[in-house]
Design goal:
single chain; 224 residues
Length: 224
């Protein structure tokens, strides 16, 4: 389990971009009863573009905290790695002993040794798979914690230095190419409005809210 494997495993973690990057400025969550209220409209503007690029995944694992997180996981699994190495060496030793048996060895003796090797080899395979699963989980968790903080720092840096767009270069497919953009450049709603005008299709009638039903009080029990 070398550092290259650790990095490859960490970079394969499925991190949702929404958990890493937030469009600034951040706003407080809307109350539950305000779900139907229209969102604040940000008028799109054509502004001079200043694009920044970042190798995000490589950046995460290159930070001091990222390297420490990797080293901590490796240290945690070092005893398990040593135990698996010992199991593997034992299986290889038994295989060599089997091959070195003299020709006069009985079939029963050979069958017994083969069965013992097979049992130990299957146990080794299970231990390797269990250890790899636990190891990958710990690496992904450690990577995710650093990635969230690194993402916030990267976005703030882009904002503070006047960039309008932050692009991710290289890396895995789990992260999008566009990591952050300046809200004023988003023309989505403006394009929707323009299309509605061009199409001539009227907006659908609003759905009437369901009538509020009250539960009638229970009938009083007559006195006998």
């Amino acid at each position: 389990m070398n550092r290259t494997l650790v990095f490859a495993t960490a970079l394969a973690s499925g991190l949702a971009a929404s958990s890493l990057f937030a469009q600034a400025p951040a706003t407080a969550p809307a109350p539950a009863d305000a779900a139907a209220a229209p969102a604040a409209v940000v008028a799109p503007q054509a502004i001079p573009a200043k694009i920044a690029v970042i190798a995000f995944e490589q950046g995460v694992v290159a930070t001091n905290e990222g390297q420490k997180a990797v080293a901590d996981v490796q240290k945690k699994f070092e005893p398990k790695k040593n135990a698996i190495d010992a199991q593997s060496n034992e299986v290889e030793s038994l295989k060599k002993q089997l091959q070195a048996l003299p020709a006069t060895t009985s079939d029963e003796e050979r069958a017994t040794r083969i069965k013992a090797i097979d049992t130990k080899q299957k146990a080794l395979q299970r231990d390797v798979e269990d250890a790899q699963t636990a190891y990958n989980s710990d690496v992904q968790e450690a990577y995710g914690k650093v990635a969230q903080k690194f993402g916030g720092t990267a976005v703030k840096y882009a904002q503070d230095h006047g960039f309008t767009l932050l692009l991710n270069i290289g890396g895995q497919q789990q992260l999008p190419t566009v990591l952050w953009w300046q809200q004023e450049t988003d023309i989505t709603q403006a394009a929707i409005n323009a299309y509605n005008v061009a199409s001539g299709v009227a907006a659908p009638a609003p759905t009437a809210p369901a009538p509020h039903r009250t539960t009638p009080p229970a009938a009083p029990t007559p006195h006998k």
